[in-house]
Amino acid sequence: xxxIKIGIVGFxxxxxDQHLPALNTNPAYELxxxxxxxxxxxxxxxxxxxxxxxxxxxxxDAVALCVPPTVRYSLASEAxxxxxxxxxxxxxxxxxxxxxELERQALEAGRTLFAxxxxxxxxxxxxxREWLQGRRIVGVDIEWKEDVCVWHPGQDxxxxxxxxxxxxxxxxxxxxxxxxxxxxFFFREGVLAVPDNRHSPIAADLSFASAGGYPVNAAxxxxxxxxxxWDIRVETEEGTLMLSKGGSQLFVDGTLQFxxxxxxxxxxxxxxxxxxxxxxxxxDVSPLRHVSDAFLLGRRVIVDPFHWEAD
Length: 311
Ligand code: NAP
Description:
Layout: E1 4-9, H1 13-24, E2 29-35, E3 46-47, H2 50-56, E4 62-65, H3 72-81, E5 85-88, H4 96-109, E6 113-115, H5 125-132, E7 137-145, H6 148-151, H7 167-180, E8 185-195, E9 203-210, E10 215-221, E11 229-236, E12 239-244, E13 249-252, E14 255-259, H8 264-278, H9 286-297, E15 299-303
Parallel strand pairs: 1-2, 1-4, 2-3, 4-5, 5-6, 7-10, 8-15
Antiparallel strand pairs: 7-11, 8-9, 9-10, 11-12, 12-13, 13-14
Helix pairs in contact: 3-4, 7-9
The chain binds NADP nicotinamide-adenine-dinucleotide phosphate (NAP).
């Protein structure tokens, strides 16, 4: 198979930090252009819009949409209509309805749609899923706490409706939980802390109940200073599993069982190439469904205003 000609749409933080190096080191792809309203690349042709890029370079086979979620649907829909394969950064859309409709359009167009969840490609996630097979779970605790000023510097879109606030990283934890737990789980109650001057939550305390009868609790916080926490603890009758550092370390009863360097985006792009080659798609909305339920059922409290550190 010849290399997949791919264009990046939205040349911001994640495109530069992760998509660019992952694509440049994978021979299955030829990265040919970027489209972004103002951010440009030193080494690649730049277009101010995806439409301009696809019209100038009809040879492009696929696009990676690295834009904020509220603009993802219209870009994905246009790319599919133009016969392109589409990789959606997470979250795959601003609403579930958008993603279901994109899936229908992809099937109709006969093109691959990949709703990517980068955290699922963290190296210890699959070993964790395997370890949990057949074990009786007693409870799950998720702690996903990071400093928004470090990971989303100046990104005001994250505080807008549809930007999801702390659920932008929190959904990564939910993408792992939904991958490693066999049981379905359902949102029951929770508190979303919304800064007085913003629209989206800066923190959330969430309680889910699993179909297996055990609780799944999650604490998300964007105000974390010092060490960051990206941990999922699963207590079972036969020991306690801990996935740490976003899924790169696996501990059982405090003993390190598995650790590997971070390889999320290389894994994600390997999967996208396999999907394209085999004519399949991969659209799992379960993490977004939990976020949507939390916004539907969660209780909102107003907390101190949020200002970027440089403001
Ligand atoms: P970002 O730095 O704000 O970058 C978003 C980019 O999208 C901007 O560069 C912006 O372009 C571009 N854009 C906006 N509207 C566009 C449009 N209509 N057409 C083309 N480009 C458009 O945000 P980010 O951190 O990269 O996040 C983007 C997505 O990646 C989010 O869904 C986020 O959840 C996900 N993600 C982020 C991280 C992270 O650590 N930051 C990690 C994993 C996944 P201009 O700069 O040209 O104006």
